[in-house]
Design brief:
The structure is a single chain. The protein is α/β, with parallel strands linked by helices. 46% of the residues lie in helices and 14% in strands. It contains nine helices and eight strands. The strands form two sheets. The chain has a five-stranded parallel sheet with strand order 2-3-1-4-8, sandwiched between helices. α2 crosses α3 and α6 packs across α7. 35% of the residues are buried. Bound molecules: BIS(adenosine)-5'-pentaphosphate (AP5). BIS(adenosine)-5'-pentaphosphate binds next to α1, α2, α3, β6 and α9.
Length: 226
């Protein structure tokens, strides 16, 4: 399975990529997470990326393309991967085509989730993430069993720096200006599948499975794994 999740901030890309990656046994490759780790570890990439991430702007293409190139070269990506948050610009989409050619593989589908602006803001303001393993929760729709504590690893849940209201609006405007044009790019290549992202989490997963059935080896038309 080689999928791209392409949708606005807070639409549920990470939530769905995580479920699908576990279910289909492929890595969930998330640029936002790779960047946040680099920032926390204060690597040269992290030091360069910090100002962009914290202000809700896109990190320069050359930095993220290199991060993804290195990640896709790792052996766990050989059977496939789910790219979450990459590509986000036409330059990144062109670079992705080159990388896939070098790896001698193709994308199966690009999944976009449709969610209204109002719902996005509601979701991001109530999102909490694990400070250790990065697991994502929502205070109302997907709360942890014990308030403030990660179900998976027991660490503290925190609010992301870029989930403040003014940064959310900047991220949305960057999406509309630089990332939305990719919908046409992938529609032209007959790779785009569109799913209603405002349904409950399980229903969104079922809808994605149904849409990608027939495009991905090993998933039957009913959405069951073969
Ligand atoms: P990144 O971390 O990728 O952030 P994003 O794209 O803004 O996406 P999010 O992680 O905020 O949202 P999501 O769609 O994954 O939603 P989630 O599943 O968490 O990027 C951060 C920054 O890094 C960027 O701003 C940029 O600076 C930089 N960056 C990253 N990639 C880059 C690139 N390629 N190029 C340049 N710069 C890059 O869900 C949100 C909330 O809703 C959660 O609380 C969840 O529990 C809840 N939820 C999910 N689904 C549902 C549902 N169906 N119903 C109800 N609640 C739901």
């Amino acid at each position: 399975m080689r999928l791209v999740m392409l949708a606005p901030p807070g639409a549920g890309k990470g939530t769905q990529a995580d479920i699908l990656a576990r279910r289909h046994g492929v890595p969930h490759v998330e640029t936002g997470d790779l960047l946040r780790r680099a920032i926390e570890e204060e690597t040269p990439t992290g030091r360069e990326a910090r100002q962009y991430v914290e202000s809700g702007n896109l990190v320069p293409d050359k930095i993220v393309v290199e991060l993804i190139r290195q990640r896709l070269d790792e052996p766990d990506c050989d059977p496939g991967f789910i790219l979450d948050g990459f590509p986000r610009t036409i330059q990144q989409a062109n670079a992705t085509e080159g990388m896939l050619r070098d790896l001698d593989c193709v994308l199966d589908a690009v999944v976009t989730l449709e969610v209204s602006r109002q719902e996005i803001v509601r979701r991001l303001e109530a999102r909490r993430v694990c400070s250790e393993c990065g697991a994502t929760y929502h205070l109302e729709h997907d709360p942890p069993e014990q308030t403030g504590t990660c179900d998976r690893c027991g660490s503290e849940l925190v609010q992301r720096e870029d989930d403040r209201p003014e940064t959310i609006l900047q991220r949305l405007s960057q999406y509309e200006e630089k990332t939305e044009p990719l919908l046409g790019f992938y529609r032209e290549r007959d790779l785009l599948v569109t799913v209603d992202g405002e349904q409950p989490i399980d229903a969104v997963t079922d809808a994605i499975e149904e849409e990608i059935a027939g495009r991905v080896d090993g998933i039957s038309q009913t959405g069951d794994e073969g």
